[in-house]
């Protein structure tokens, strides 16, 4: 039952993140990806700190070290992904970013069937990418940003599990988001012109913070206490498919047959992984 709840939390987190990404991309023409990242992460951090008040919990040195690594990877992932999203389409950016979680799923695998699910998800990600004149149609700097974000995403999954061994979900997310906000500040603050931010921008930034950070990362931290990194990583391979569907529903982006096949692959991989995972032991609460 606990495992089923965790899987549902992951699905809700995926929907929330992709909805937030559509809002965020609409902010780029007005304030740019750096300022959007700054507002998103700081608003999320302040909200989570107010809700969970993590300063009431004593932290060991190991816990502090884990939170710092978790937060730094989280902040870098957010900034790099938005820099990629400015240059390449949402579905492509999400697919390329999956180098991280797929690597975690692959390296954590211990059984042949888990390896096959990871390969099926990888096939879906490859299929969802454009294959005609790739070098001419895709901004290569955007591709590099997306791949770098993927590396940070993989680290985030690993460090989130470590943090979960020391701190209960919501408090860990709040502390990690605060570290993430500090991480992005040096490179993003100069891009924020507060006098030019009107009510509409603040409202959109607030929705981006809720949908892209505060809600999904809290859900993911809770889920990671009940499912291993490999299962979490393959479940999250639904992200490219959801990104493509968001493009269809909200951006009028039509999907071709290859892209529908890609959606089937990643959904089948996620379903297979969730059905065949056994003996999931939550980390100890300390």
TrEMBL record:
Localization in the cell: Cell membrane
Recorded topology in the membrane: Multi-pass membrane protein
Domain of life: Bacteria
SUPFAM superfamilies recorded: Multidrug resistance efflux transporter EmrE (SSF103481)
Domain EamA: 5-126, 141-272
Main location: membrane
Membrane-spanning residues: 34-52, 64-84, 90-108, 115-132, 138-160, 172-189, 201-219, 231-251, 257-277
Entry protein name: DMT family transporter
Keyword annotations from UniProtKB, A to Z: Cell membrane, Membrane, Transmembrane, Transmembrane helix
């Amino acid at each position: 039952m606990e495992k089923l709840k965790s899987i549902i939390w992951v699905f809700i987190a995926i929907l929330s993140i992709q909805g937030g990404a559509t809002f965020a991309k609409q902010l780029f023409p007005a304030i740019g990806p750096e300022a959007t990242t700054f507002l998103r992460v700081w608003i999320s951090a302040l909200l989570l700190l107010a809700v969970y008040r993590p300063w009431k919990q004593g932290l060991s040195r190991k816990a502090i070290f884990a939170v710092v690594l978790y937060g730094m990877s989280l902040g870098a992932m957010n900034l790099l992904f938005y820099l990629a999203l400015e240059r390449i389409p949402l579905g492509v950016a999400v697919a390329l970013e999956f180098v991280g979680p797929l690597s975690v799923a692959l390296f954590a695998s211990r059984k042949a069937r888990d390896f096959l699910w990871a390969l099926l998800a990888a096939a879906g990600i490859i299929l969802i990418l454009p294959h005609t004149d790739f070098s001419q149609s895709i901004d290569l700097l955007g591709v590099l940003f997306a791949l770098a974000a993927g590396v940070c995403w993989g680290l985030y999954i690993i460090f989130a599990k470590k943090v979960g061994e020391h701190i209960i979900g919501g408090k860990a997310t709040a502390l990690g988001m605060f570290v993430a906000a500090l991480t992005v500040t040096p490179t993003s603050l100069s891009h924020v012109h507060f006098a030019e931010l009107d009510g509409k921008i603040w409202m959109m930034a607030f929705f981006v913070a809720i949908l892209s950070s505060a809600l999904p990362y809290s859900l993911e931290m809770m889920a990671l206490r009940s499912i291993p990194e490999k299962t979490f990583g393959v479940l999250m391979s639904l992200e490219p498919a959801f990104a493509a569907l968001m493009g269809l529903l909200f951006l009028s982006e039509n999907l071709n047959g290859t892209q529908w096949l890609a959606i089937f692959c990643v959904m089948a991989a996620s379903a297979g992984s969730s059905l065949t995972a056994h003996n999931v032991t939550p980390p100890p609460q300390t």
